[in-house]
Amino acid sequence: MEDHGNSLLAGKTAFITGGAQGIGLAVAEAFLRQGARVVAADIDARSLEAARGRLEALAPGRAELVALNVTDLDATEALADRLFSNGGVDIVVPNAGILVLKHGIDTDLATWRRVLDVNLTGAFITATSFARRMVAAGTPGRIIFTASLFGVRGGRENSAYSASKFGMIGLMQSLAAELAEKGILVNCVCPGQIDTQMIQSLFSERAVLQGTSAEALRSAFEARIPVGRLGPLEELAGAYVYLASELARYVVGQSLVIDGGWQVG
C-alpha cells in the first residue's frame, strides 16, 4: 500500500472539470502525486479513455473519470450528490474551457454565447453546485478556478475568451468573500503562455497562414517571455497544489498569475 502520510493532499478528494486533457489532466496528476483521490470530468470521450489508463497507472484505484458537460446543471448536481453521498469532495477545480480566437467585430453572437456559456456559466455551475454541498456538510474545502492571464488584461482576438475570464475572476472574488467564513477558500490560477496542445495547434495553424514554420513562430513567441520558454504543464500544476494545500490556508480571493514574466517583461 502506498504511504501518503507526508504528502500535501493526503486524504483529500478533488473534483476537476476538463480533467482529461491539458491543464486539467496535469492538475489531476499533480494531485495524485500528492496523495489525493481525484475525480476528473470531461466532455471529450477520447480524452477520457486516454486519461483513464494514464491516471490508473500513476495511482491505481485513486482516480475516477466521468463524462460531464459543465453547462448541464442537472447532470452536475446529480454528480455532486453522488460524490457527497460517497465521502464528499474537499477540492473543486472548475477548469473546463474553450478558446475561440477572433477579433471582437468578427465574433458572432452564437460564438460569444458559447464561449461565455462554457467558460463562465460552466464554472459557476460547478463551483456553486459543490460549494452548496460543502456548506451543508459543514466541511472546509478549496475552490480553485482556472482563469487566465487574459482575465487580468485584454488581448487581440480575445474578446469573448477574455470577457469570460474577467467574469470568472469577479465570480471567484465574490464567492471567496462569501465562503471564507465557512472554511471554504476560493482562489484562481491565471495561466499565461503554457505549453499545451492548444497552443501547439495554434502555432501550426498560424504557420500555414503566414507561410512560415511552427518552430519559427514558437521561437519568436518564446523570445517575448522573460524566462525564454513556454511554461511546462507540470510547473503550472504546482500552483494548484499550493492553493489546495494547508500551505495556503490564509490565501483568499487571489488571482495567481503564472506567466514566466510575460506581464512584467
Provide an overview of this structure.
The chain has 265 residues and is α/β, with parallel strands linked by helices. It folds into two domains: 13-192 and 232-256, NAD(P)-binding Rossmann-like Domain (Rossmann fold, 3-Layer(aba) Sandwich); 195-230, no CATH class. 46% of the residues lie in helices and 14% in strands. The chain has helices at 22-33, 45-58, 73-84, 109-137, 159-179, 197-210, 214-222, 233-244; strands at residues 13-17, 37-42, 63-67, 91-93, 141-146, 184-191, 255-258. Strands 3-2-1-4-5-6-7 form a seven-stranded parallel beta sheet, sandwiched between helices. Helix 1 (22-33) links the parallel strand 1 (13-17) and strand 2 (37-42). The mean pLDDT is 95.
> Whole-number radius of gyration?
18 Å
CATH topology of the largest domain: Rossmann fold
Average predicted local confidence, pLDDT: 95
Q: What is the CATH C-level name of the largest domain?
A: Alpha Beta
Please give the alpha-carbon distance between the first and last residues. Answer: 47 Å
Total discrete domains: 2
Q: Catalogue the unreliable spans.
A: none
CATH second-level architecture of the largest domain: 3-Layer(aba) Sandwich
Bin the helical content: 40-55%
Largest sheet: 7 strands, parallel
